[in-house]
Amino acid sequence: MGEVARAYQGCRERITEICRRLEEAEARAAVPACPGWTVHDVIAHLSGNLADAVAGRLEDAGTERRTAEQVVARRRLSLTEVLQEWNEHALVVEPLMDGAGDIAHQGVADAVSHEHDIRGALGVPGARDCDAVRIGLAFAAARLVESAAERGISLLVRTGDGWELGPHEAEVLLTGEPFELLRAITGRRSVEQLRALEWKGDCEIALPAFWWGPLHPADRPIHE
After folding, report:
1. Mean per-residue pLDDT for 73-93?
2. Are 183 and 196 a contacting pair, CB within 8 Å?
3. What is the pTM of this model?
4. Sheet holding 198-200, edge to edge
5. What is the 3-class SS of the chain, one letter each residue?
6. Which CATH superfamily is domain 3-122 in?
């Protein structure tokens, strides 16, 4: 398998290890980064993504309607059953990911985001410098830069070690460590927290870009 598949596999294996010993009551713990969802619901969504891929249901992947259907369809299953479903479908999907293009990168961004949603809910931080964070950030930063451009704003996103995405002569520059940038761009930080990031230029004109796709800034601060 290539780097995209290995990154997704790493997320899946880490999440499975974290969750496989949880009691059902623990599995019903609320996930602050995903309002209205429990740990069980997050796993249901991740498993549902691969089930949809195996069934060829990709046309509305990532939409609020589709994710809600994935969660509701698995609420009667135990966490163990949902984890088993996810891991079984992964044997089919993961070997194909590096040839699947942008949707596979989206899958990694989704998986690593939810890995850290679960870690935050259960108080088990870790894996913040994994390869999935980098791949997920590349996908999410591209969407943010596109969102800014659609609003007439040129935005450059840069990490502390020099990776960057966006026009070099951008009017607004956002700099940070990969994990923090990923969490900020994917709706895991409030507007107040976004303002507190490292900006060059007027951050206020760039903030509307954080409403992209189904994502938007968190309603309240999320601390991890």
Report:
1. 97
2. no
3. 0.95
4. 164-165, 155-159, 172-176, 198-200
5. CCHHHHHHHHHHHHHHHHHCCCCHHHHCCECCCCCCCEHHHHHHHHHHHHHHHHHCCCCCCCCHHHHHHHHHHCCCCCHHHHHHHHHHHHHHHHHHHHHCCHHHHHHHHHHHHHHHHHHHHHCCCCCCCCHHHHHHHHHHHHHHHHHHHHCCCCEEEEECCCCEECCCCCCEEEEECHHHHHHHHCCCCEHHHHHCCEEECCHHHHHHHHCECCECCECCCCCC
6. dinb family like domain (1.20.120.450)
Q: In CATH, what number does 131-210 get? A: 3.30.1050
> Cβ distance 7 to 135 under 8 Å?
yes
Domain ranges within the chain, ordered by starting residue = 3-122, 131-210
**Which residue carries 């609420």 as its tokens?**
75
pLDDT digits (tens, 9 = 90+) for 21-40: 999 889 999 999 999 999 99
